Amino acid sequence: MFHFYCQEKIKNASITDIYFNRTVKIIKSKNLDKRVAAEIRARKFPCNYPWAVLAGVEEAVNLLEGLKINVWIMSEGTVFYPMEPVLLIEGSYSEFATYETSLLGFLCQASGIATRAARCKKLAGGKSIYHFGARRMHPAITLMIDRASYIGGCDGVAVEESARFLRQEAIGTIPHSLVLLVGDTLKATQLFHQVIDPQVKRVALIDTMGDEKFEAIRVAEALGKSLFAVRVDTPPSRRGNIVEILKELRWELNLRGHQHVQLFVSGGIDENKIRALSSIADAFGVGTWISNAPVVDFSLDIVEIEGVPIAKKGKLSGRKQVWVCQSCNFRQTTPWSENTPLCRCGKKMQPLLKLMIKEGKVVQSLPAPQKIREFVLHQIEKLEIDGV
After folding, report:
1. What is the distance, to the nearest Å, from the Cα of residue 226 to the centroid of all Cα atoms in its chain?
2. CA torsion, ordered 150, 46, 9, 24, to nearest 10 deg
3. Where are the beta strands (DSSP E) in 326-369?
4. Mean pLDDT taken over the chain
5. What angle do CA 16, 75, 58 make, to 5 degrees?
6. Is CB count within 10 Å lower at the N or C end of the chain?
7. What's this model's pTM, rounded to 2 decimal places?
8. b/e sequence 137-163, b meaning 16+ C-beta within 10 Å
9. Could you give the CA distance from residue 106 to residue 340 in angstroms, rounded to a whole number?
10. Is residue 112 helix, strand or coil?
11. For 50-63, how does the pLDDT look when each residue is reduced to its tens digit (9 = 90+)?
12. Strand ranges, E, within the chain
């Protein structure tokens, strides 16, 4: 009925590029299968971003669990840089070859979304970011998109099923359709106030038919302290200077004693608009910019065969470890070693690639989305948005 693959087909590696099936058939029929080490890494990031956020790890682990392989991987939510391996697989090539398509798919798209969400949160300067992009993508992957946006830094999501999975409250106001059906902004807001659970914050959509300033004054005067925010979603053809519109709204609301009413902006919000509006807006609803984020272009490459370092041209041979200093945040990638290097500041460095699967068995617990989000926010506090 709908065009998506069931979990069973993904788990049994039915969703794979045909050349992997053919390769496995050849090496098995000719007794060429060998034990290899393979790494996943990205040479560069979309839009020349200097850093990215790793996501999709939980699905990747679920995919590879049960295979006769060992897997080292960075923790989900780790900020990483170009050319750093984020995952290392060790095992017979035929054991995992047909899983490459799905494995990369899990990591590429989720990491792209989480990275965009983290950048938006960073640019907002502490203001709230809500993900409203489910309607822009196939519904079969809504949960993946909402989860990646949340762990990347979004404060909430609009789809109730996703919010339930994340153990959060779904975020939403009222659509323009309700205002049109009722015929008046204030009346639609009052009906929401009458019908919807009092614990849900009252946010009035003020741009459907009338002027934003006068609609904001009307609903604020009518609802008083019950009004939490007004939402501006003015179409581009009527938007004009949105910064000035928001400043005018703030002035008029404050003048009448409604300093508590926040300004919530949505509609075509991207990083540039967040940067421009973060000084005046209190929260942002971001849709397509996050849900349709460009993927992180990971690739998987063999770097060792039967213990001997080897890789195709353009790639560095041998398995590697990525180290970070918790004191000064210095990072380096080195040939694989059990010896812990000292940072240039004199402190011992910590390995980022950690054993997750040993001979098919998951040996570490996977953190809850809330913990991953906290981890991401802690890391990006120290980062520049367009620099290291």
Report:
1. 33
2. -140
3. 331-335, 350-351, 354-358, 361-362
4. 96
5. 40
6. N
7. 0.95
8. beeebbbbbbbbbbbbbbbbbbbeebb
9. 31
10. helix
11. 999 999 999 999 99
12. 35-42, 52-53, 69-73, 79-80, 87-92, 128-131, 156-157, 202-205, 227-232, 262-266, 283-286, 298-305, 308-309, 320-324, 331-335, 350-351, 354-358, 361-362
Rg of the Cα atoms in the chain: 24
Whether 61 contacts 362, CB under 8 Å: yes
Enclosing H/E stretch for 165: helix 160-165
Quick one: DSSP state of residue 296? P
- Whether 138 contacts 146, CB under 8 Å: no
Question: How long is the chain?
Answer: 388
Using one digit for the tens of pLDDT, what is the confidence trace for 192-249?
999 999 999 999 999 999 999 999 999 999 999 999 999 998 878 777 789 999 999 9
Identify the CA nearest to 218 among candidates 256, 167, 265: 256
> Hunting for tokens 């789809």 — which residue is that?
159
User: What whole-number distance in Å separates Cα of residue 45 and Cα of residue 247?
Assistant: 36
Strand partners for 354: 73
Question: How many Cβ atoms sit within 10 Å of the Cβ of residue 19?
Answer: 10
Phi, psi of 143 (to 5 degrees): -65, -45
Which strands form 331-335's sheet, in the order they lie side by side?
331-335, 320-324, 350-351
Looking at residue 336, the DSSP 8-state letter turns out to be -
CB 36 within 8 Å of CB 90:
yes
Nearest residue to 51 (alpha-carbon basis) of 83, 26, 93, 20: 83
Q: Treating both helix axes as pointing N-terminal to C-terminal, what angle do 242-255 and 212-223 enclose, rounded to 10 degrees? A: 30
Residue with tokens 């053919």: 22
Q: Which residues are within 8 A (CB) of 122 and not within 5 positions of it... i.e. 6 or more apart?
A: 153, 380, 383, 385
**DSSP code per residue over 199-236:** TS-EEEE--SSS-HHHHHHHHHHHHGGGEEEEEE---H
Q: What is the DSSP letter of 343?
A: P
Query: What 3-state DSSP class applies to 254?
Result: helix
Q: Is the separation of the CB atoms in 322 and 84 below 8 Å?
A: yes
